[in-house]
Write a structure and sequence with these properties.
The complex is a heterodimer. Chain A is mainly alpha-helical. Chain A contains seven helices and no strands. In chain A, helix 2 crosses helix 3. By secondary structure, chain B is of the alpha+beta class. In chain B, helix 1 crosses helix 3 and helix 2 crosses helix 3. In chain B, strand 6 and strand 7 form a beta hairpin. The chains are: A mainly alpha, B alpha+beta.
Chain lengths: 174, 241
Amino acid sequence: MTDARTFETHFREVFTREHPSLVRYLARLTGDPALAADAAQDAFIRLHERGAMPEEPRSWLVAVAHNRVRDDRRAEARHLRLHGNAGDLPAADPAPAPDIALETDERRRAVRTVLDAMSARDRRLLLLRYEGYSYRELAAALGVSEASVGALLARAHSRFARQYTGGRRAPETP
Amino acid sequence: MHLKHRDCRQLLDGEVAPQQADALRRHLAGCAACAALHAEVERDDDCVRKGVALLDAGFPPVDLPDVTVFATRARRRRRVRLRWAAAVLLPAVAAAAAAGPAATMIRRWAATRVARGAAPALAAPDTPSRSASPNGVTFEPGAAADLDIQCGAAGGSLRVDVVAGAAVRVTEANGRLRYRLGDGRLMAVADGGPLDVRVEIPHDVRRATLRACGRTVLEVRHGVVSTAAAMVDGHYAILLP
């Protein structure tokens, strides 16, 4: 009973602290705020079902949410194969509000294009790091060694900057 | 010794030990080439930050849902699964118990599983952790788990693949052991009940894979674990490198 109560307390703490961060990250990753909210909710339900805190709760939640996003993307692809168009599907990027400057909108699209062109691992690394994940948490969430995270991040940042600025940057040294 | 992109990145992210960070900063102060590289890494970082911040402008603010929703939904899911498991498991156990002396083995199996109060399909999924051990790479569950690898509620096959010397070992085991593969999990059973299982692969093995239900759940190449999977509620959360 005490363990259950401890878990509930811990769960609430983790939920309050991590839910907004996870939704923000997933929205940036997928470009779809609705999917982000669903995936984050699913991850927290599974954490509650688990009944015990994993060693790295943030990494655990991200890994579960990635799984959910992947399943959703597969279902979407199946739907597209079966129906041949995306007419009934939500747009990947929300329509811009009228008061948002056209230039900002174009730049946002450019960021999305560059991110989508990157490998899944690089994209996740960049966005998780932006959300403040430590190297240890990144390693656990993405299944890479902690020692390699610095090099992977450096390459991912460099690739993003190169693509985003139109290839005018010099490539990085290994 | 000049800095690399990686060093600059780690310094920028605060992922360098304080003493080492001081040494790197001292070097940066006196080395134009490294200072230029560091400035480039800072520019890349700035570019990413500004770019990603643009994405947020298109998203609605995040509302924090009521935390009790999660408990309620998790309980509802557990209840549904319990009903399904009971519907499948209880008739099977009853049939085994009624089959007479010939079913001693099945009854013993049922006793070890059911007496613990958890149906196999309902075991709480755990996130496996990996660690280096003197014997090689170990793929083991968290502290409280009594199983290592699950294949899903529907059952399946599991094999330790391809390497000589790879062993499925049981921790804290004395005496006789039986390995059991069924209901989607590999477990060892001793008189005291199920035991922790770990898969050990010797250091000198260049490549090894562990497959469950036709999926590679652990892959080791040149001593580096490149693929691992966590069983999460009937799905594999495959962590790609």
